[in-house]
Design goal:
Largest sheet: 8 strands, parallel
Number of strands: 12
Strand order of the largest sheet: 4-11-10-9-8-7-6-5
Bound molecules: ligand FNR
Radius of gyration: 19 Å
Distance between the termini: 52 Å
CATH class: Alpha Beta
């Protein structure tokens, strides 16, 4: 089977709504709202652009006929709801132009939408420019996926010069660059290194949803690396790490977002926007474009209710909502010298 088809199939086989570290965040019921639901606005500025909602369709597919159809459906949802959408890594199309249409379908369906192209770290400025040109993309995502590559039987084994290559791309590419993980999170040190390279948008994409070590291990004949299935920082842990970095940048949360409450909690912690992958693909595969659109509308309505519950009209103000951490998330804070009272007593 084509690797991209295998990834999508395994991601869906393993997909399940499960408890994750978002359950370790409790919102303090703390105020009289003194406002109406109609007072809320979901508008957010990301990559110097205004978006009507604080979530988007994150990188997934392309590279085969089947994934072309997934990309078509996802692009229909993105167009209808005015969502930013990222394609999966276009490196397959740069190597083999015969699969380019599985990515360009996204631009064809949504000629004026905000589309993000995607490539792995370790690629050159020239490749980055070609990835953008392929889709007339508005931005480029560069993904970090060491854990995935190492577990992937045919994966890369050379990770030298990633940071210097990212720096060259960020400094010279004419469109904004988002550096993202693929479900293993980041630490404050990694985020700081990226910021020092000039990166201004970072998606910490943490553990808690799709696990690429689990997916790649299932593709190994012996499946001997199952102990890495839960490798990495969870999305809340990685967000708290990133928030320790003093510089200002666009902080994006993804990894295990299953409902509007997860988005709300990510924004309360300090993310500007959230990327949705596994949940959106699952929804579209099982219910088509209509179900995808319904999900976006439902989550938007729920976010307005949640904002009203804690008396916040704007997403920016969500950062004032007090939250209490428990269990392993609190342990993480203690061991990593993150002051959890900054969040619980604000
Ligand atoms: C992904 N993801 C991904 N990320 C990336 O930067 N480039 C890629 O090509 C892919 N490919 C891909 C395929 C499939 C089928 C899935 C489900 C995911 C990773 C994705 O963008 C995200 O970081 C993780 O999936 C975590 O988010 P969820 O799935 O838990 O919401």
């Amino acid at each position: 089977m084509n690797r991209k088809d295998e990834h999508a199939a395994l991601a869906m086989d393993f997909y399940q709504e499960k408890s994750n570290d978002f359950d370790l965040i409790r919102i303090v019921h703390d105020r009289f709202p003194e406002m109406k639901v109609a007072d809320t606005t979901l508008a957010v500025e990301l990559l110097n652009q205004e978006f009507p909602r604080p979530f988007f369709i994150n990188a997934m597919t392309g590279g085969s006929q089947k994934t072309k159809e997934y990309n078509r459906q996802l692009a229909e949802v993105a167009k209808e709801c005015n969502l930013m959408m990222a394609t999966g890594s276009v490196s397959a199309a740069l190597k083999d132009p015969s699969v380019a249409d599985s990515f360009t379908i996204v631009r064809k369906v949504n000629p004026t939408g905000f589309i993000t192209s995607n490539l792995g770290a370790g690629t050159t400025l020239d490749q980055a420019q070609r990835a953008v040109d392929l889709l007339s993309a508005n931005a480029l995502q560069i993904h970090l996926n060491v854990a995935q590559e190492l577990v992937m039987p045919e994966g890369d084994r050379d990770f030298s010069q990633w940071l210097s290559k990212i720096e060259t791309i960020v400094r010279h590419l004419p469109v904004p660059v988002i550096v993202k993980e693929v479900g293993f999170g980041m630490s404050r040190k990694m985020v700081q290194q990226l910021v020092d390279c000039g990166v201004t948008a970072i998606d910490i994409s943490g553990r808690g949803g799709t696990s690429f070590t689990k997916i790649e291990n299932a593709r190994r004949p012996q499946q001997e690396l199952s102990y890495l299935s839960d490798f990495g920082q969870s999305t809340p842990e990685a967000l708290l790490e990133a928030l320790e970095v003093p510089q200002i940048f666009d902080l994006i949360a993804s990894g295990g977002i299953q409902n509007a409450y997860d988005i709300y909690k990510s924004l309360v912690l300090g993310a500007k926007s959230c990327g949705i992958s596994g949940k959106m693909l699952h929804t579209v595969i099982h219910g088509g474009v209509e179900a995808g659109i319904q999900l976006v509308q439902d989550w938007s309505n729920e976010l307005r209710l949640l904002m009203t519950l804690t008396g916040q009209k704007n997403l920016k103000d969500l950062r004032h909502v007090p939250v209490v951490f428990s269990g392993s998330l609190l342990e993480w804070c203690i061991n990593r010298e993150i002051d959890s009272k900054k969040y619980s007593m604000r």
